[in-house]
Fold this sequence. Notes:
The chain is α/β, with parallel strands linked by helices. Helix content is 44%, strand content 15%. The termini are far apart.
Amino acid sequence: MRMKGKNVxxxxxxxxxxxxxxxxxxxxxxxxxxxxLEGGDGQAQAARLDDRCDGRCLFKACDVTDTAxxxxxxxxxxxxxxxxxxxxxxxxxGGICPTxxxxxxxxxxxxxxxxxxxxxxxxxxxxxxxxxxxxxxxxCASILGVFGQSQTAAYTAAxxxxxxxxxxxxxxxxxxxxxxxxxxxxxxxxPLLEAxxxxxxxxxxxxxxxxxxxxxxxxxxxxxxxxxxxxxxVTGAHLLVDGGFTAGKS
Length: 250
Ligand code: NAP
């Protein structure tokens, strides 16, 4: 039980990588808040998992583009559970569009969820964790935080920002007992990739020397490590979990 007694918040926890991370933390004894959009799968997933895990899973509606909702998520979690020991700052959306056709609205939406949302959640987490004198924040970045890819200007800008913001937050937070890291997944088999056709998927698989897409549980395992005390000397890292995608590129 690597997370027994710990309280964890996972944004975007109703689907894909977030949901797998919720399940993994529950298996390891944590109490977990699924923080996701109102009206999505979060409520149902939390009810299903709560039944299986002795009341240790709850849902809180939170849109990471709304500062008031993010701050309320943390205040309510502290009021109910007493502390926030780890956060997976994971909510995010994709976005593929040739840059000359990319409108302000779509560009700004991706930035507001994938970059500004990470900032809002990290800021709220730091405020709570500084009072506690402990905690671990894990930001979800991407291989596209360190490499470019055609037609992903907003997404790559956001993820590159997440990688470097993580380093700054880690330096600030270390003296106060809080660790901040990022995970950089390769392409992972989740609903985020549903927009891609078979040819595109085969092309993406070919970019991973391991010869397949990643599984959500493989990112969840990396989150679990960084969230837990096993990573007590790890801060400011961008842990690439990418089936070798980046190995030949650096
Ligand atoms: P996913 O299955 O689509 O899950 C994302 C979750 O975030 C969904 O539950 C979604 O809700 C939620 N969400 C979207 N906008 C939100 C908002 N404003 N506030 C709160 N929650 C919001 O995608 P995933 O693949 O697991 O992605 C999780 C993270 O991994 C993202 O940050 C993504 O960029 C990153 N990542 C994914 C891959 C990949 O290949 N899958 C690779 C690298 C990095 P709805 O479903 O209701 O919209």
